[in-house]
Structure prediction request, 342 residues.
Amino acid sequence: MNEFRDSTDLVGDAARLRARAEADGYLFIRGLLPAANLERTRLEYLEVLRDVGYVDAEGFRDQLVNPANIPDGRGSLHNDTYAELYLLESFHALQLEPALLDVMEALLDPPVLAHPSIISRVMFPQREMFTTPPHQDFPHVQGTHDVYTAWFPLHDLPASMGGLAVAAGSHRRGVYDYRPALGAGGIAVIDPLQDSWATNEFRQGDVLIFHSLTVHRGLPVTGDRVRMSVDGRYQSVREPVLQRSLLPHMGVTTWERVYAGWASDDLKYYWSDLETTIADVNDAHLEQVDARTLEEFENGSLPPELVKKSIGALERIIERDDPDLRERAAAALAAHSASDES
Ligand SMILES: O=C(O)CCC(=O)C(=O)O
Prediction:
């Protein structure tokens, strides 16, 4: 795999940052975020993870996993622990760091809206099956193509802790076709995009920024430590945005609960003075992946661990108005229930 092209020396030069992001679909910037602020969030995360037993009580500062408490069928946190992390004031402040906002203002038509729906990922080691599959953010984020994601680990990230890879230049070909997959997002780009993948080890404070059409994927966490990272998303206020991007990620909690314990009011509802236009959810990508799921279900190529998950896709097809697909989905479901009963 290639290394990222380093764009650290372009910081402060809006035109060159924009040109590089448009050419490659991503920017890798060393030391953009203050390491001390990341360290604070890292330790706050680890205290929560230690209290629920996911990391070792002694080695929690080293992010050492407690394998006995990691469920077999999971690559990441239960929602109740995620909801606890979501309360942390220092975590929400990270995506609003001035240096990061300056880069986003260089890439987008200001004023910039940082989606309040910030995302955090805690990835357990030795769970390769749940590694984030190759995908673009657009099918999830929607609203406008002109969204940039900032992805950064809370800590130094050696290769054994996984990380993120991008397919350089993949943002120029629209929305790709997908198949169902395990791991964050649940869908995988079918095109292998060989030879275009790039990644890097990170130091605390390094940031990867990529366009909503840039294909990216997680890398397996192979050691014995958890990987903890943040995704912030940014767009121009002038472009439409989905309502869910203004709410806590996946509805894990509410802003009232998030804000109840904060020391300062400064960042609460920071977007409320911005005039946003709410976009309708577009199901076109979901329909494509549902049809592909049906095809794989019918021809028996769906991996066993996805069969149960795919029932939802078949049920959605039955609710839609394509008579041919509906008939096939109903037949596939009937065959599945018959085989379950036998
Ligand atoms: O951190 C990860 O593994 C996945 C991040 C990502 O791709 C996303 O949130 O879109």
Q: What stands out?
A: Residues 119, 121, 132, 137, 151, 164, 184, 216, 218, 229, 231 surround 2-oxoglutaric acid (CB under 6 Å). The mean pLDDT is 95. The first strand starts at residue 2 and ends at 3.
